[in-house]
Amino acid sequence: MIHKQLTTIDVSTLNTNGDTMCFHYTDPFGQPAHGFVIRFEDQLYAYRNLCPHWGVALDHDEQFLDDTGQEIMCQMHGATFDPTTGACTFGPPEGSRLEAFVLQEVPDEPHLRMVLRAGGITL
Ligand code: FES
After folding, report:
1. In this structure, what CATH number is given to the domain that contains residue 58?
2. Do residues 50 and 11 lie in contact, with contact meaning Cβ atoms separated by under 8 Å?
3. Which of 46, 53, 66, 86 sits in a 20 to 30 Å window from 123, CA-based?
C-alpha cells in the first residue's frame, strides 16, 4: 500500500497516558488540515482532527479525551471514539470512524515519527 507523508513530528513530550499533540499538514487539495497524536495505553495513535458528524475539530483547547480518560470525545455534540481504532462508540456519527494516520519511526531519531496517510483519499 502506498503511503503519503504528511509531516514529521517530535513525540518526546507524549510520555503519559492521554498526552496529546496537534499538528498541521496539507490535505490532498492543498488546503490546511489538522491532526493530533495521542498516547493511550503505551501506544501512540494519530488521527485527523475532524469529527465525521459535522466536520468540525474534535477538541476544546487541545483536550481530546472525555472525563473518564478512556475515549476521545467531540466537543460539539459529545460523540465518543475508541482511541485505539478511531471507531465511534456513541453519538450521532455512530458507525463511522476518525481518519487514522500511520506513525512510522525515523531511523536514528527515536523521538521523531513520520505521519503517513495510507493509500486513497479521505476528505
Ligand atoms: S460534530 Fe462531532 S458529534 Fe456532532
Report:
1. 2.102.10.10
2. no
3. 66
> Does residue 123 form part of some domain?
no
Place of cell 475532524: 50
At 105-119, the pLDDT tens digits run 999 999 999 999 976
Neighbouring CB atoms inside 10 A of 75's CB total 15
- Centre of ligand 1 from the C-alpha of residue 19, in Å: 22
Atom 1, ligand 1: residue with shortest CA distance: 54
Domain hosting residue 51, numbered range: 3-118
Task: List CB contacts of 31: < 8 A, sequence separation 6 or more.
Answer: none
- C-alpha of residue 54 to centroid of ligand 1, in Å: 5
Protein residues with CB under 6 Å of any ligand 1 atom: 51, 53-54, 56, 74, 76-77, 79, 91-93
State whether the Cα torsion 91-60-32-111 is positive or negative.
Answer: negative
Give residue-wise pLDDT tens across range 48-79. Answer: 999 999 999 999 999 999 999 999 999 999 99
